[in-house]
Amino acid sequence: MKIIDGGVTAAKGFKAAGMHAGIKKGTKKDMAMIVSSAPCMAAGTFTTNLVKAAPVKWDQHVVYEHGEARAVVVNSGIANACTGAEGYGYCEETAKAAAEALGIDKDEVLVASTGVIGKQLPIDTIKKGVKDLSGLLLDTREAATLAAESIMTTDTVKKEVAVEVEIGGKTVTIGGMCKGSGMIHPNMCTMLSFLMTDAAISKEMLQKALSADVDDTYNMISVDGDTSTNDTVLLLANGLAENPEITEEGEDYQTFARALHYINETLAKKMAGDGEGATALFETKVIGAQSKEQAKILAKSVICSNLTKAAIFGHDANWGRILCAMGYSGAKFDPEKVDLYFESAAGKLKIIENGVALDYSEEEATKVLSEKAVTAVADIKMGEASASAWGCDLTYDYVKINADYRS
């Protein structure tokens, strides 16, 4: 696998555009479009929240009932959630506008929204934005960046990644972008993730690869414990790499799945590290577990603990908070067998052994915990399974950002 500099235009046949359409105040970019020159197999996973935004319902219709797609239209600033039949109608109007501008069917257009819940979209502004974006589409690296910037809300950085792999003697590329900073919690988070590949792969295998991988990537991150109404991951495959079509599990499928996992894990970690107000990416790795599910439950519990997140912000090796979070997770383990380490670019330090604190240096611990990425490793000594979860520290700025979100 080769990591390349790219985003949603990295794979063959994909163009993108991003711009300020007028949804947000000022001049911030707020609309993006991605288009494939060829029909795509479409796969998707969506929020587990019972309150589903209108674009989630529209995309489920396209992915599950139509099956193919050619374009994605995204707006930021307004979530189009809790907007009733009118909000769903605006999704269809957006798709119709894109279909007319691009010469495709409206059921080949996916839509996504992120922002404030409860407001109706300014549909005339959206439709004009769609028309303008259709004239700006390019397959350049810069176009991918503009699209990535245009879907941001409280994100502080754009989030993109791309890789190349060889399948059947052909170079297959997967490129993606996402947004997510707050209202993020398993399962699925306030996140929109758009993945484009030129792989030739059946719809069944495409959906299988995405659904399986989401559990180990996007569903293993949390910023604030709130599961959004708009979570959407879309994966489009147009087949232009001309590799032998992947129609069953095997070596080619595994190669594709590994590349997809790298894309998803990278984007998931970018979101966790850019949590609202965050100063550090906080990873918890549970090793020595009896099962992967046990490890996942324990790891998630730690990264969701507000007390632990606050300790990470304070660069404080308050290991009791980690053991406490593991204890209320619901997973069974023996606290008196747990070894715990903190590690970062500044080094690795063993904090407890068999559930009891060691005579470690607080000064050294603070040094390790002062990096931009910090990992807690918990060895529960019960087996060979492991899992990782990702979150961030809890800072003063998180409250400020969310207190002022609508103003």
What does this structure look like?
The chain starts with a strand and ends with a helix. The protein is of the alpha+beta class and 407 residues long. The relative contact order is 0.14. It has helices at 54-66, 84-102, 123-134, 141-150, 203-214, 251-273, 292-303, 306-313, 319-327, 362-368, 396-403; strands at residues 2-4, 14-19, 31-46, 68-78, 109-116, 159-167, 170-179, 192-197, 232-237, 281-289, 339-344, 347-353, 356-357, 373-379, 385-392. It is globular. Helix 2 (84-102) runs parallel beside helix 3, helix 5 (203-214) packs across helix 6 (251-273) and helix 7 (292-303) packs across helix 9. The strands form two sheets. Strands 1, 2, 3, 4, 5, 6, 7, 8 and 9 form a nine-stranded mixed β-sheet that branches. The chain has a six-stranded mixed β-sheet with strand order 13-12-11-14-10-15. Catalyzes two activities which are involved in the cyclic version of arginine biosynthesis: the synthesis of N-acetylglutamate from glutamate and acetyl-CoA as the acetyl donor, and of ornithine by transacetylation between N(2)-acetylornithine and glutamate. GO terms for molecular function: L-glutamate N-acetyltransferase activity, acting on acetyl-L-ornithine as donor. Its main location: cytoplasm.
